[in-house]
Amino acid sequence: MVGGQFPVFDLGNFEKANAAERDRLGAEVDAICRSTGFLAITNHGVSQAVIDAVWGKAHDFFDLPPEQKQKSKAPYKGYPYGYLGPELEALAKSRDVDSPPDLKESFNGGPQRTPNGMTDKDALAFCYAPTIWPEAPEGFVDAWKAYYTSLEDLAARIMRLFAVALKLPEDYFERFIDAPISALRALNYPEQTVPPKPGQLRAGAHTDYGSLTILLPQEGSKGLELITPDGNWTPVPPVPGAFVINIGDLMALWTNDRWVSTMHRVVNPSPEDGGMDRRQSLAFFHQPNWDAEIVCLEQCLAPGEEPKYQPVLSGPYLMSKFQSTTK
Ligand SMILES: O=C(O)CCC(=O)C(=O)O
Ligand SMILES: [Fe+2]
């Protein structure tokens, strides 16, 4: 990690800085993304009222009896939105690692509108599939949509920062993200009253599939860990008032692995740390347009160097990764 400390980046400060200062701050972000790809973002401008509202509604939703939550369940395996009950997903399987299912439940919602003229069958059946909204708690849908909208905007601002960090024109990524297929996921890791199975975690080791993830872990919570460049698991500390950002596979692909899509996981609570404690988080997975073709950036290739990966299409890549985890 940069300087051994978890990096904290002031986004508002970057946005009002002059060009030279932005380049300097961009270089800092480049260094972070080359080493771990995880940083905390402060001064992000997202309204605290919007955050508190979705946080509270998600908490109330997870408190409902199981039969009520099941009313908004994803209708079949591999369906991306709605309620995904306990032990239905194993994130480690996205890396072809067999593992018991993760000890969590989630509620998932997709893009708020389908672009005009979208006819791709897979796109319509997968990322533009309807979100199965819960009837309760009251106000859930409005709170969800407000947070989703705020985070889509924040993600676009962070993509501008990333463009500066990569010495690209600041609006370079805009054409790839003007009809994004991002998903918001509210996660609940229930109190653990029975011991986990061997190898069973709250979230198995994985990388995220998109451009970037904006995570809001429960204040003061533990459990999220990342792999450092020297191969050790290390905790991601909660930073009050900040979002935790991590880059996903598509940034690694764009940059020919100059930036790392770092493996991370959520471990079970230890008895000293409150043992069975419940944990909550919100994860916004920013994902470029369904048909955005992610091709290695020339700027990231040394003269004569070949791209390590074949280009991928954002939507189909996401779909295949997601579906591999719910088999
Ligand atoms: O809940 C967390 O803190 C992280 C979850 C995560 O990494 C994921 O769902 O991709
Ligand atoms: Fe993740």
UniProtKB/TrEMBL annotation:
Coiled coil region boundaries = none
Cofactor requirements of the protein: Fe(2+)
Q: In which pathway does it act?
A: Alkene biosynthesis; ethylene biosynthesis via 2-oxoglutarate
User: Cross-referenced InterPro entries, in alphabetical order?
Assistant: DIOX_N, IPNS-like_FE2OG_OXY, IPNS-like_sf, Iron_ascorbate_oxido_reductase, Oxoglu/Fe-dep_dioxygenase_dom
Q: State its Enzyme Commission number(s).
A: 1.13.12.19, 1.14.20.7
GO terms for biological process, alphabetical: ethylene biosynthetic process
Which residue ranges are recorded for the region named Disordered? 97-116
Main EC class the enzyme belongs to:
oxidoreductase
Catalytic activity from the UniProt record:
L-arginine + 2-oxoglutarate + O2 = guanidine + L-glutamate 5-semialdehyde + succinate + CO2; 2-oxoglutarate + O2 + 2 H(+) = ethene + 3 CO2 + H2O
Keywords attached to this Swiss-Prot or TrEMBL record, sorted alphabetically, are:
Ethylene biosynthesis, Iron, Metal-binding, Oxidoreductase
Q: Which GO terms describe its molecular function?
A: 2-oxoglutarate oxygenase/decarboxylase (ethylene-forming) activity; metal ion binding
* Stretches assigned to the Fe2OG dioxygenase domain: 180-288
Q: Which family does it belong to?
A: Belongs to the iron/ascorbate-dependent oxidoreductase family.
Identify the PANTHER family for this entry.
2-OXOGLUTARATE (2OG) AND FE(II)-DEPENDENT OXYGENASE SUPERFAMILY PROTEIN-RELATED
Q: What is this protein called?
A: 2-oxoglutarate-dependent ethylene/succinate-forming enzyme
Record organism: Pseudaminobacter soli (ex Li et al. 2025)
Q: Show the taxonomic lineage.
A: Bacteria, Pseudomonadati, Pseudomonadota, Alphaproteobacteria, Hyphomicrobiales
